[in-house]
Amino acid sequence: MSGKRFVAGLVSVVVGLAGAVVVAPGAAHATTQRALRPTSWMYTDSRTPNKAYVNQSTDAPVGAWKDHNGKHVSRSYFTYDISAYKGQRIIANGFIISETQANDCGKTRSLQLWTTDPVASNASWNRPPRERAKVATFGGTICPASYLEAELGNTIRDAVAAGKKTITFELRVPERLEANVRYGRRVQRDPALIVKANSAPGVPSQLTVDGRSCDAGAPLYIGTTTPTLNAWLTDPDVNDTGGSDYAYATFAVWPVDRPQDRVELPEYWAGVAPARAFGTVPAGLLQDNGTYAFAVRGRDDADVSAWSDECRFTVDATRPAQPPVVTSADYPSDGEQHGGPGIPGTVTFSANGVDDVTGYRYGENSPTQYVAAAAPGGSASIQFTPSRAGLVTLLVESLDRAGHVSDTVYYRIFVRFNAPGIDDADPDAWLGDPHHLTFRPNMENTVSYTYQVDDGAAQTVPAAADGTAQVTVTPASGAVLTVYSTTASSVKSGQNSQWFLIDTRPVVESAEWPFDGSPGAPVGTAGHFTLKPHMHGVVEYTYQFNQYQDDERPPQTVAAGPDGSVTIPYTPTSAYGQSITVISRTADGVESEETGWSFYPSSIAPTASSADYPLGDGDGGGGPGIEGAFVFRPTAANVVSYSYKFGAAEEQTVTAGPDGTATVHWTPDPSANPPGGWVALLVRSTSANGLVSDWGYFSFRVKSLEPTVTSDVYQWPNGGNVGQTGTFTFTAHLSGSTEFVYSFDGEPERTIPVGADGTASVTWAPQSSYSHGLQVRSRTAGGLNSGSAYFSIWVNPS
């Protein structure tokens, strides 16, 4: 029969040239579709009538065929394992073969598929398995056909219902044509038995209400009238590609005393099984203090499971009306100090008259620990051991049977500081010197102290009659000592710590340059720094001036004197902030910590003044091409010359007069236009002894003589329109200007002569809206520029 309709509804398959049937992967679906392969196969041959050919590696012969031995007639038998389908519902089944040879394609194919009895061990042509029913035929004109299919009706369903674990099919040519060689065929030896089946979903399990398990055994109380129901859905079906069924759940809820009021919630799609399903009970269905039950039924796209066992719960929507009461005889909340770190005490929580309290949550920072009440509405006690002294606050809440939380109680207690005190008789001891420590008790009947330095072994010393103890330690810098005391009744105190931050930094002194931020001796002064040790055995120092600064000097190492100190010379070459960093070193190579100090040599920079270009004058002086005189005056003694530079120009030198002053002349570059017109002048002096001062910085402004611009149409903030011609009038302010140089919107510059009245006009029409700009300057015949003026133009949107 034609199987196109059958296969399209059953399974998607591809039959390759080698004859393998491949099930195409797909999404989960409500059935499993499998292509079963024979567990064994056999063919018989009329020419050897008492022999069977089992599990040969050849293709399967069907009908008559010839070889050098003569004529043969064969039938092929295929056995399949169908035991996995017990208890499943068979939805469809089919058979797929692939021909590899046809003796004569001129003859119409005629093949029959029969079910038979199981193949006996002595089966042969003369003893064939008994035929039971013809279940399919294969026809068609394609020859040879790589893909032939047929439906099998109820064949597999009936076999499974009869309790069969295997099924055998016989492929043959009809008896009337079987001896005709022209109808003979060969097919691949592993035809596919396609079975489409479905197993009912498993009964839902792991029922919960608002996350609380129904399997706890005790009565279940829920704190809301709209709880979330939950169940675990399973399905035994898994197809050839590993996919499983889609799982759906229906939750049913009813009052225990009125099962007739059962309500089923809308079905929930849980995805691919196994999966967890959820259902939220809508408002108005449950009432406070009511007892209810729910059950769940699973479904795939073909079958429905049985209902689960019921889960009963009671709604308790009322939270505790009162917070718990917290009491303790060991740590009462009375404002007084009690106990101490490490000393346990009993704290009791009481329900405060709320009869359904089942437990308490508590904690110092947040109530995260839980203790159950002795009985509903009962109390609970905990052992509380403070880890620190001072104010400690316990946060306590009660929980009722439904999980409601009460208001929080803040139970405040003061934990006594009972750690021993530590007195250090040698707080300024150098590295390697002992520290004589005294431990003082903060607990009565202290009999001993246990102390430890860093990770060293703990040591215990007895207390004297007054409760104190003395120990001597020689720590490394940065070491920490910890100590606790123990009483005669073996009660341990809290722990106290002593850090030993031993200062090994060298001492640095200077008579010329103090380290308090005040100015010291001027630049060029020959001074000294004295380096003194702050640890034993110092034999040398490594020092550096102005580390990470522009005038950084390389590190220097110098030997220490017999007393461990040394004096080094220093002459500063710049003023203001300078620095010195120093480390000391012993003969054993032990280095000290680094010390660093800042100091401030006074400035000897010269001063400058100018009547033509006043210093710091925002209005400016002179102008482009206008020469100005600048006078330099000394701060240092015996100045013989000055080095100076204007802006980015090259450095120049001028000789000082007998009075130590000098005058230079400077004319602004006609082509330059410094930002804002400001120019920086740097100058320093050189004395007769070769002393060079630090730079003096002076700033002045060159007055700009740029033209002014007016417009009949585009005078800001007024604007014109696109294409509207405006007149722009330039007025020169630089004496001797002969032309204006201008540009609209950065276009190539143009020129126009300056009129006798010092003005000139141009016209311009904008071609687009919004902002535009005009830049213009005047220029003399000698090439002197005035500086540029920028004129903003606004064009209305078109």
Question: What features would you describe in this structure?
Answer:
By secondary structure, the protein is an all-beta fold. It has seven domains: 4-198, Sandwich (Jelly Rolls), CATH 2.60.120; 205-315, Immunoglobulins (Immunoglobulin-like), CATH 2.60.40; 325-415, Immunoglobulins (Immunoglobulin-like, Sandwich); 421-500, Immunoglobulin-like (Sandwich); 507-602, Sandwich (Immunoglobulin-like), CATH 2.60.40; 607-701, Immunoglobulins (Immunoglobulin-like), CATH 2.60.40; 708-795, Immunoglobulin-like, CATH 2.60.40.10. The chain is 2% helix and 45% strand. The protein has two helices and 63 strands. Strands 4, 5, 6, 7, 9, 10, 11, 13 and 14 form a nine-stranded antiparallel beta sheet that branches. Strands 18, 20, 21, 22, 24 and 25 form a six-stranded mixed beta sheet that branches. Strands 27-33-32-29-30 form a five-stranded mixed beta sheet, with no helix packed on it. The radius of gyration is 53 Å and the shape is extended. The model is unreliable at 1-28 (pLDDT under 50).
Summary keywords:
798 residues; mainly beta; Jelly Rolls; Immunoglobulin-like; nine-stranded antiparallel sheet; six-stranded mixed sheet; extended
The description of the largest β-sheet is: 9 strands, antiparallel
What is the helix content? under 10%
Briefly, what CATH class of the largest domain? Mainly Beta
Oligomer: single chain
What is the CA-atom radius of gyration, in angstroms? Answer: 53 Å
The helix-and-strand class reads mainly beta
Q: What's the β-strand tally?
A: 63
Please name the CATH topology of the largest domain.
Jelly Rolls
- The average pLDDT is 92
Low-confidence stretches: 1-28
Report the β-strand fraction as a percent range: 35-45%
By DSSP (H or I, 4+ residues per run), the number of helices equals 2
Which CATH architecture of the largest domain?
Answer: Sandwich
Question: How many domains, in number, for the residues?
Answer: 7
Report the span from N to C terminus: 79 Å
Shape: extended
